[in-house]
Specification:
Keywords: Hydrolase, Iron, Metal-binding, Protein biosynthesis. The chain is of the alpha+beta class and 183 residues long. It is built from three helices and eight strands, in the order H-E-E-E-E-E-E-E-H-E-H.
């Protein structure tokens, strides 16, 4: 199947009800509309300097997200990986170790939060080709996976913040990152 170039999609923002709903499993991975949605999600996440995006963030209530870690202005320290579609994911096992780090969200522009997440997650999902994959993700990529998985469950990163003192503006976050990169 030849992959078409995707088009940019509009991102739902905090307050839209789709962001708070649990999403439905994908029934037909090979469906043209699903494959088109995958292309569009990849195009969108790359254009807006995201490291992940979920279907509900573009008004599609299905269990699909794109994992697309790459260094960019929003996440200069992100490891580089090819964008992959994660369909009907399950988290099978988590590490005991929890790490707090900064997260943002395309659906909540201008805000960052210091969020606790499992350092590693063992997961299972289907690829866009319909292949079942079992894999362990660690560190930053595990964080992205958990963040996007939360979207499929109707949760946002602000639901996981432990204190309002752990929230900062994007502008202050950029200053913080800039000072870290200079060291």
């Amino acid at each position: 199947m030849k992959k078409q170039r995707g088009k940019l999609l509009q991102v739902a923002h905090l307050g839209h009800p789709i962001l708070r709903k649990k999403n439905k499993e994908v029934k037909d991975i090979n469906a043209f509309l699903l494959q088109t949605l995958i292309n569009d999600l990849i195009a969108t996440v790359m254009e807006v300097d995201g490291v992940g995006i979920s279907a509900p963030q573009v008004y599609e209530p299905v269990r699909l997200f794109i994992l697309a870690s790459h260094p960019n202005s929003r996440y200069p320290y992100a490891p580089k990986m090819k964008p992959i579609a994660i369909i009907n994911p399950k988290i099978l096992k988590t590490s005991d170790k929890i790490v707090k780090d900064w997260e943002g969200c395309l659906s909540i522009p201008g805000l960052r939060g210091l969020i606790p997440r499992f350092q590693s997650v063992q997961v299972e999902y289907f690829t866009r080709e319909g292949k079942k994959v079992k894999k362990t993700y660690t560190n930053f990529v595990a964080r992205i996976f958990q963040h996007e998985y939360d979207h499929l469950e109707g949760k946002l990163f602000i639901d996981r913040v432990e204190s309002s003192l752990d929230l900062i503006s994007e502008k202050e976050f950029q200053k913080l990152i800039s000072s870290r990169l200079k060291k």
